[in-house]
Design a protein that fits this description.
With 479 residues, the chain is an all-alpha fold. It has 21 helices and no strands. The radius of gyration is 22 Å and the shape is globular. It is found in: Cell membrane. It is a multi-pass membrane protein.
Length: 479
């Protein structure tokens, strides 16, 4: 199978994984949100920082190094496997003992047991990280999707059963752990690779030299992105953190899902083209425009319909989360573009630039948080939008040094798409407002139909619209 075909099928199968398999998890979280309420999700929000740090430390950027390295053997994979397992045990032990201090910080003693149980996932995922990395390196996204299906279904069933029987926050913990256990088991039982009793310091140094900068960058990103959870959890009511956490997660589903597709498929694909910068730049531009063509109207559209969506899906209890959701939608609109630019740095092995730009972006975030905190919770949320756009400028500046696609060119490619997406959003908002006396379902369906019709109709009149690239991919004629 050619690289073009692998990329096309990779996109399609990763899309299926994201919107079908992960969609099941998303729907289950909607049901749990109706059964549990904001406080239980506020507790999960308090863990976000520590879960993110633990995950980054366990992986240490090593899987990314395996993917970009052209020639790897069993010694490479075994070395990374043992390193990941060792790190997972160290991280879990550390969090086990500091759990009481985290609980004291938030004033929520239940967090002690939640942390100690939830973080077992580090050990479980580390046990099968290499198998998953090999499948990604070989672009076998169909197999990854098919393995995710049973693990997700079983995890969701466990979570819903516990949630329905009033187990509260533990239903969320059980759902995640069950999914991880089943997926790890399936990866081991359906893949041929097994670790050998070999460990190479030389191989570890090679992969760690590239990976540790990604790890540090990831840690910075996690710490500063989750600083909002820490501040809200510390200085605002637990219920407020619950509203913010759900608003963020609901934004993450479409945006981060598309970002995940971008990262998983384009990274190994671009890694194979790292010696042909001209071809890489052409493909990069097509994929960037296509991603923004999808995410911009999607995120702005759901923001326009946020109130009826929240009311029909979660109930009136969650309506205070609507303003947070609408504001965050603007920030998450740019996430796939961040992923494209970061992948360029990783493909060319410039983890030094990766770390440098992360430091610059974190300085921007600190300033945004300090200023935004003065204006309360909404000020904090709006600061996230501003820092997301400024971070985009930083990312595009550094990636443009490696390929012939400057910040100016990237922005000019996005502006026409953004203008049409904003126009469609305004139309959808007017439809929702005009149908205010009708049922929520009527508002959502009417706004979606008219907004989509307007957006696609205008794009069909533009000769070089990314819509035609999407149609070509679907027909498997061009990439």
């Amino acid at each position: 199978m050619s690289l073009k075909q692998k990329t096309v099928y990779g996109i399609l199968w990763t899309f299926a994984d994201a919107f079908l398999v992960k969609g099941l998890s998303f729907v289950s979280m909607l049901l749990l949100a109706r059964w549990l309420g904001p406080n239980d999700f506020g507790l999960i929000g308090m863990l976000a920082l520590f879960i993110g740090i633990g995950t980054s430390l366990v992986e240490s950027g090593l899987p990314a190094s395996l993917i970009r390295t052209k020639k790897t053997d069993n010694i490479d994979f075994s070395t990374v496997f043992y390193m990941n397992m060792a790190m997972s045990l160290v991280v879990y032990t550390l969090l086990f003992f500091i759990a009481p201090y985290i609980a004291d910080f938030y004033g929520q003693q239940i967090l002690v047991n939640i942390i100690r149980v939830y973080c077992i996932s580090f050990i479980i995922s580390a046990f099968s990280t290499v198998q998953l990395t090999i499948l990604q390196k070989e672009m076998k996204f169909k197999k990854i999707t098919l393995l995710n299906v049973p693990s997700t279904i079983l995890g969701v069933l466990v979570g819903l059963c516990l949630g329905y029987n009033d187990y509260g926050v533990w239903s969320i913990v059980a759902m995640y752990l069950t999914t991880q256990v089943i997926l790890s088991f399936l990866l081991w039982s359906t893949t041929n690779w097994r670790p050998s009793f070999t460990f190479s310091i030389e191989k570890l140094q090679y992969h760690y030299k590239f990976g540790y900068k990604l790890m540090l960058s990831g840690l910075l990103n996690i710490v500063f992105n989750n600083s909002y959870h820490v501040l809200i959890g510390k200085y605002f009511p637990l219920q407020t953190l619950g509203y913010y956490e759900r608003a963020q997660r609901f934004n993450e589903y479409p945006s981060i899902t598309i970002t995940g597709i971008v990262e998983k498929v384009t990274y190994p694909m671009m890694a194979k083209l790292q010696d042909d910068k001209q071809k890489l730049s052409v493909i990069y531009r097509k994929m960037l425009r296509l991603a923004f063509f999808i995410t911009a109207p999607l995120m702005l559209g759901v923001a326009a319909m946020a109130q009826p969506i929240f009311e029909i899906v979660l109930g009136e209890e969650w309506l205070p989360a609507v303003p947070y959701f609408q504001i965050l939608s603007i920030a998450y609109m740019f996430y796939p573009i961040h992923a494209f630019n970061i992948n360029v740095l990783k493909v060319f092995g410039r983890s030094d630039l990766f770390l440098k730009l992360e430091i610059i972006k974190k300085i921007i975030i600190v300033v945004g948080i300090v200023v935004g905190f003065q204006f309360g919770i909404l000020g904090l949320v709006w600061s996230g939008v501003l820092t997301s756009f400024l971070a985009l400028l930083v990312n595009t500046y550094y990636s443009s040094q490696l390929i012939d696609y400057s910040t100016k060119k990237q922005l000019l490619d996005m502006v026409p798409i953004l203008v049409l997406a904003v126009s469609a959003c305004l139309l959808m908002y007017c439809v929702v407002d005009g149908f205010n006396n009708y049922q929520n379902g009527v508002q959502i369906l009417s706004a979606t139909f008219l907004g989509t019709l307007f957006y696609l109709s205008i794009h069909s009149l533009i000769k070089k619209s990314p819509m035609y690239d999407l149609l070509a991919i679907i027909k498997d004629r061009n990439i």
